[in-house]
Structures are given as structure tokens and as C-alpha cells.
Design a protein that fits this description.
This protein has about 200 residues and is mainly alpha-helical. The protein has a two-stranded antiparallel ribbon. A two-stranded antiparallel ribbon has the order 2-3. Helix 3 runs antiparallel to helix 6 and helix 5 runs antiparallel to helix 6. The two termini are about 15 Å apart. The N terminus and C terminus are likely disordered.
Length: about 200
């Protein structure tokens, strides 16, 4: 059964007592979980605390899928960083790049950081994070490819970067859409219906 984060979940430390600091120090390292839970609430809405069973999250197939997803996201960061380096080199060589090129570079880097956060929280069992990661890994490639198809909007090297970026995101979506991952992160309603059947 899914459970609410912070309520009897073994993955959570208890919330600080009233008047105590919101961020506890554990072994010299600041516990940021309370702050992250607030961020989760903004990103995940009312269902932000819903977690799947630890056994399912710890299953070798789940861990293997998230390992691949993490490596693919790291590849996205490298591609975004390479695009930034190319743009800076061109700028220093006197090539004037249009505003959409710089905007695209910033959006890609920002988007990749966001996807990393979703992947990290999904690995901890948060269903909202899995759902957002799955949704965006399907939507972003479509938007990216549509923009890449607009004649003259981006230079050829950036169009190529966008196509590679989209293909990697489609790979991430494929991992998230596997039968195993959908079973791990199924909706609580689906789980209840299966229990009644």
C-alpha cells in the first residue's frame, strides 16, 4: 500500500519539534529532507507524500531502470554543456548567435536539472516524481523536435543537438513505461481495485 511521507515511513526522520530548527544536523551533515518535502509539495501537489512500497523501489529491476535513467540524464547534461561551450566559442570567434539559441541552452540545462530532481525523488519511492518524469520525458521530445523543424530558428549544429536530446529523452520514457515500472508506481486506486478483485 502507498503511504504518506513523514507518517510512519521508515525512509523519513521525524519532523522537528515546534520551535526547533527545521533542519536537523545528523553526523555533521544537514538533514534537508524537511525542506525537500516542502519543495515536493509545490511540485507534486496534494499527493506529494504518497510513496510506493520500499520493497518495490528496492527491486533489482527498478534500481537497474533508475541507473540507466541517471546515466541518460547525465548524458543530457553533457550535451547541454557541450552546446553552451560551442555557443561561447562561436561568440568569441565573432559569430553572433540569435536570442533563441541562448534561450534554448538555458532551458535545456534548467530542464535537465528538474528531470534529475524528479528522478532522484522517484528513486526514493515518490509516485508524483515518477509521474512527472514520465510525462515530461514524453512531452519535451515533441516540443524539441517541433522547434528543431522551424526553418532558420536554430543553426544546424543546434538542430542536431536537439534531435539527439530528444532521442535520449525517448529512451528515458521507454524505461519509465516498462510494465515493471508502471506496476511499481501504479495509482493507489488501481492497487485498491486489484485488492478487491
Amino acid at each position: 500500500m502507498p503511504r504518506r511521507g513523514g507518517v510512519g515511513g521508515s525512509n523519513f526522520r521525524s519532523m522537528p519539534a515546534p520551535g526547533a530548527s527545521a533542519y536537523a544536523w545528523t553526523g555533521g551533515i544537514m538533514d534537508l529532507e524537511p525542506m525537500l518535502l516542502k519543495l515536493d509539495r509545490i511540485a507534486g501537489g496534494r499527493a506529494a507524500g504518497v510513496k510506493v512500497d520500499d520493497e518495490l523501489v528496492g527491486h533489482p529491476r527498478t534500481r537497474r531502470a533508475f541507473t540507466w535513467i541517471t546515466w541518460l540524464l547525465l548524458l543530457e547534461v553533457l550535451i547541454g554543456g557541450a552546446a553552451f561551450v560551442v555557443a561561447v566559442v562561436l561568440l568569441f570567434n565573432g559569430t553572433v548567435l540569435a536570442f533563441p539559441v541562448w534561450m534554448r541552452i538555458l532551458v535545456v540545462l534548467g530542464m535537465t536539472v528538474t528531470l534529475f530532481y524528479f528522478a532522484w525523488r522517484a528513486q526514493k519511492g515518490y509516485r508524483w516524481a515518477y509521474s512527472r518524469l514520465r510525462l515530461f520525458s514524453k512531452i519535451f521530445p515533441v516540443i524539441t523536435l517541433v522547434m528543431a523543424a522551424i526553418p532558420g530558428l536554430f543553426p544546424f549544429w543546434m538542430v542536431t543537438e536537439q534531435i539527439v536530446f530528444s532521442l535520449i529523452l525517448i529512451g528515458i520514457a521507454d524505461f519509465l513505461d516498462s510494465d515493471h515500472m508502471r506496476r511499481v508506481f501504479r495509482k493507489p486506486d488501481d492497487e485498491a481495485a486489484q485488492g478487491e478483485a
